[in-house]
UniProtKB/TrEMBL annotation:
S-Me-THD N-terminal domain boundaries: 8-163
The protein's name in its UniProt record: DUF917 domain-containing protein
Domain S-Me-THD-like C-terminal: 166-349
Originating organism: Nonomuraea dietziae
InterPro entries registered for this protein in UniProt: S-Me-THD-like_C, S-Me-THD_C_sf, S-Me-THD_N, S-Me-THD_N_sf
SUPFAM superfamilies: CV3147-like (SSF160991)
Domain of life of the native organism: Bacteria
């Protein structure tokens, strides 16, 4: 158990942005929300998974929508607590703990803000070990936990609770509502008991995000290579370094979809749906979902999100192994390349 205060947010947001594989929303926006919530309500207590009682009611809090929308439509800061209260009303009991649904960008910071606002502790972990674009793509799906009831809240004060027959239907219905609510909402869903956390979460990912962000910051201060520092912390492999020469991006169906082309020692293409899902070097596939495909600014080591990718940026792409549960047959069926329509099987990352 430890406290998360304002001083920890910069490193944590930076690391979460890297782990978000290009998605999860702008970590800077999330950091501002968390900072203001902590300033008003005080630090948040962070618990290890083993410290959570077996009968606890643990509620993941997140944002749903296209990260491109977040560039222009900032949250009001009230949505996450409104979603939590709407969910509690349906459950008939109060949440005892908050947890991130994913470790990625704004979606690692929103739960901190929600925990501060609600006066609840936060669990050190998340349900993906990265960011994924769809609601059903969580480890709790693999152990039979339902996404619903799923509460959504927007900046205008609207709330909606979805009850679906499956987690895939929860995504479809929730996404349709999200588009009508402005393509940017907060969600409270996928309720877990304390005794389900070991199987349903990737442990200690908020601590990992903080360690990662700190490593990048310290490397930069020491005039060392921040990308190498990040790669070392994550046990990853460098896939490519070069300049962004073309970006094709569109916001459709509640997602930011597109491709980015890089040039350097050869060519490199990234395909994304909110998050980077497939990487090709000189036409050959070198990395696929569910492994993490992370894009960093070559000079600073700062994360480059899919909505911020633009011509002229000099970036380095690294691949990071995912949680091994994602490479099981059920995990690949849920979030492997074929689910997203790519005509290829999962390819393990090349050796460093």
């Amino acid at each position: 158990m430890r406290k998360i205060g304002i001083d920890q947010l910069d490193d944590m947001a930076r690391g979460a942005g890297i782990l978000g594989t290009g998605g999860g929303g702008d970590p800077y926006v999330g950091k501002l929300l968390a900072r203001e919530a902590i300033r008003r309500h005080g630090p948040v207590t962070l618990y290890d998974i083993a410290e959570v009682p077996a009968d606890a009611t643990v509620v993941p809090i997140s944002g749903m929508g296209a990260p491109t929308v977040l560039l222009e439509k900032l949250p009001a800061g009230t949505e996450e607590l409104a979603a939590l209260r709407a969910l509690e009303a349906v459950l008939g009991r109060k949440a005892t703990h908050i947890v991130p649904i994913e470790v990625g960008g704004v979606n690692s910071m929103i739960p901190i803000a929600a925990a501060a606002q609600a006066g609840l502790p936060l669990v050190d972990g998340d349900a993906m070990g990265r960011a994924f674009p769809e609601a059903q793509m969580v480890l709790p799906t693999l152990i039979g936990v339902s996404n619903t009831p799923m509460a959504l809240a927007d900046d205008k004060g609207n709330t909606l609770v979805v009850d679906a027959i499956s987690n895939h239907w929860a995504e479809r219905l929730g996404r349709a509502a999200c588009v009508q609510m402005g393509c940017q909402v907060s969600c409270a869903d996928t309720v877990l008991r304390g005794d389900q956390l070991a199987d349903g979460l990737v442990p200690a990912t908020l601590t990992l995000a903080e360690d990662l962000g700190r490593a990048v910051r310290l490397a930069r201060a020491a005039h060392a290579d921040p990308v190498a520092a990040a790669t070392s912390v994550l046990g990853g492999v460098k896939l490519f370094a070069g300049k962004v020469v073309d970006v094709e991006r569109r916001t459709t169906g509640g997602f930011a979809r597109g491709k980015a082309l890089l040039a350097g020692a050869g060519s490199f293409e990234l395909s994304f749906q909110n998050e980077h899902l497939l990487a090709r070097r000189d036409g050959g596939i070198v990395a696929t979902t569910p492994d993490l495909i992370c894009v960093l600014d070559t000079d600073t080591g700062e994360p480059v999100t899919t909505e911020a990718m633009r011509y002229g940026l000099r970036v380095t792409v690294i691949g990071v192994p995912c949680d091994p549960r994602w490479t099981s047959p059920a995990g690949l069926e849920l979030a492997g390349p074929r689910y997203f329509g790519y005509d290829c099987d999962y390819r393990p990352l090349p050796l460093a």
